[in-house]
Design brief:
Length: 490
Amino acid sequence: SQQIQFADDMQEFTKFPTKTGRRSLSRSISQSSTDSYSSAASYTDSSDDEVSPREKQQTNSKGSSNFCVKNIKQAEFGRREIEIAEQDMSALISLRKRAQGEKPLAGAKIVGCTHITAQTAVSGCLFGGPGGGHQLFPGEESSLSLQRGRRRIHLGVAVFAWKGESEDDFWWCIDRCVNVDGWQANMILDDGGDLTHWVYKKYPSVFKKIRGIVEESVTGVHRLYQLSKAGKLCVPAMNVNDSVTKQKFDNLYCCRESILDGLKRTTDVMFGGKQVVVCGYGEVGKGCCAALKALGAIVYVTEIDPICALQACMDGFRVVKLSEVIRQVDVVITCTGNKNVVTREHLDRMKNSCIVCNMGHSNTEIDVTSLRTPELTWERVRSQVDHVIWPDGKRVVLLAEGRLLNLSCSTVPTFVLSITATTQALALIELYNAPEGRYKQDVYLLPKKMDEYVASLHLPSFDAHLTELTDDQAKYLGLNKNGPFKPNYY
């Protein structure tokens, strides 16, 4: 069994509080899955006249054809990109070194569905290296840099992903990963719940071998709770999304840096004095608002939650309804994880040259489908940028066809992805090595001990030195000197 510093904390993971508001969970699983093709939209680039990767016969340096990418010859470039990413992912590298000795994922067969970038390739190397098993990754199309994932193919990780996937391609990739002769997954790593949904829909017998699911997105976690509530969740699942190391770092700090990057690369917009409305003031919204405010933008916030709304007020933002400001704002940014937040009615009322983009998980927040009508003209200005032109000449600038701005149009800070990937890795290790019966067929939160361990692995990058409690101080606070220092719901 593993001995990774938190092994002394043998208590069962705290189950997610069951009495918290579940209004957002009320949709059926089938409805939810059609709402969230974050990865499946038919975005094409300048190379869309090439032969589909599905039709190509390619082999890697080891003679394997168990993958599907646009061009395997880009693998060497991918290797260099991964080496650059590794420089800022020291915690994940140290975990990988530890795993080489203890092999906590020996025998694990992980099937995953996530964005394919240089950073996720580093984590894939952790799972596929000496401490891990063989796994297959259908990639989400919205990643900007899929060639970076191609290096994985040479490391025993089979990648099925390319930039420009259609919706049909996306589900084909997932199917190729699940339906493999002579190989069956025993762990699922999902981002958005699409893979889990596909297995339930097409290959439910696969769950007989699955030891657990690790899910890291709001959308995917909602789906898991829907399954659990309906009594259909037949394996333990780990809710990584609501761990502090995911919420505060990936959602807050990552978006605080990447929102400006994505907007600048696509539109070169000047933020000083611009009026911006940010829909949603969760962790993603907080990060976006902080960055925009720092550059002198006038920021409005929309919210459904009175607590988040009050936080926005205390941070100096006007909380409004979208309909109140839609005629005057220069930029609209969605960060809710919901659907139809920006409707055709809103789009009709926007002023000329308004920029519309999404930072939420899926591509459902902006009702892009309503813009596919004969009276509106679409003009591709540059990659990931469309002008939608109304009959009177008004233009709305739509970015990435409503999909994730930072993953579609820019990059995500490597250091933050190291934190998320480390959290995912520890969740996989814990579920895979857990004795039978510790986890029931339910959804579990990461224990605070594990959250704190992930954070501690990243402190050496800043030469940060933690203060240690004295025995007397620990007794006074009623804490163990080594943590956990916060309750699990924090």
